[in-house]
Write a structure and sequence with these properties.
The chain contains 11 helices and no strands. The protein is mostly helical. Helix 1 packs across helix 10 (about 245-270), helix 5 (about 125-135) packs across helix 6 and helix 9 packs antiparallel against helix 10. The longest helix has about 35 residues, at about 70-105. The protein has a single domain, classed as MetI-like fold (Orthogonal Bundle). It has helices at about 5-10, 15-35, 70-105, 105-120, 125-135, 140-165, 170-175, 180-215, 230-235, 245-270, 275-279.
């Protein structure tokens, strides 16, 4: 299936296409964040401490006189960085392991899947807290923890898809014609398991951002000079009665990003497999 066809089908899914545009804009904002923020994220304006939204500070200031809009923009950089890294890592590690396990099978497959089932059985946030505590508290270790959590999920999905495809007639014909395992995997297995992997990656992007913000809220994620939406909510939580905008705007940003990722995932599922539209 060509990219042009998939994109055309995705455009037909209005909500998913709007979500895609939102995420693209968010990525652009994250890339340009240091150049477009009006104030430094930690720059203090002591004459405007805890001020409401105004022309000078569009989203108001926090208890130290720091511009909330600038911190929100810098927080998008952390969210996108965490989301993308936490998806790329399991794609590079989990998918190849799952494909190899599903294609070759045997006792190694049984051992591998028992390990995967054991990791998946542990709640994601608990596992993330444990890994982050072991590695050390900072943004990169939080991203690594999320990547480790997602790796078994992608491995399991890749293995299940590989088990279905390896018994297809065209794969059997390729074996009979003398094609080696690596050629079959690269030419037949990987292209055919890509659609569900892409859809899963879209959904997990939202989950990764949610876990990162949760870890930062608990003080286990991004640390200064990094800014996270989760840490902004944590700062605003203690002063919610007198300065509610400190946590409202980061909360809205998190909600919109997660919804966009989920809607995009639904749209990609239909675009990559039109049978879902009929269902």
């Amino acid at each position: 299936m060509s990219f042009k066809i998939v994109f055309k089908r995705l455009m037909a899914e209005k909500l998913a296409f709007v979500s895609l545009i939102f995420l693209v804009i968010l990525v652009i904002i994250a890339i340009l964040a240091p150049d477009i923020i009006p104030y430094g994220p930690f720059q203090q304006d002591l004459s405007q401490v805890m001020s409401p939204p105004s022309a000078r500070h569009w989203l108001g200031t926090d208890s130290l006189g720091r511009d909330i809009f600038s911190q929100l923009i810098m927080g998008s950089r952390t969210a996108i960085k965490a989301g993308l890294f936490s998806i790329v890592f399991p794609l590079l590690i989990g998918v190849p392991l799952g494909v190899m396990s599903g294609y070759f099978g045997g006792i190694m497959d049984d051992i591998f899947m028992r390990i995967v089932d054991g990791v998946i059985a542990v709640p994601a946030i608990i596992l993330a807290l444990g890994i982050t505590s072991a590695l050390g508290v900072n943004l990169w270790n939080a991203m690594m923890a999320i990547g480790i959590i997602f790796t078994p999920q992608f491995a399991r999905l890749a293995r299940g898809q590989t088990l279905q495809i390896r018994s297809e007639p065209y794969v059997e014909v390729a074996k009979i014609s003398g094609s080696g395992p690596l050629w079959i995997i690269s030419k037949h297995i990987i292209p055919n398991i890509s659609p569900p992997i892409i859809v899963q990656a879209s959904f997990n992007l939202s989950i990764a951002i949610l876990i990162e913000t949760t870890l930062s809220f608990l003080g286990m994620g991004a640390q200064p000079p990094d800014v996270s939406w989760g840490s902004l909510i944590q700062q605003g939580y203690t002063m919610m009665d007198v300065d509610p905008w400190m946590m409202v705007y980061p909360g809205i940003a998190i909600m919109l990003t997660i919804l966009a990722g989920n809607f995009l995932g639904d749209g990609l599922r239909v675009a990559l497999d039109p049978k879902y539209r009929k269902l």
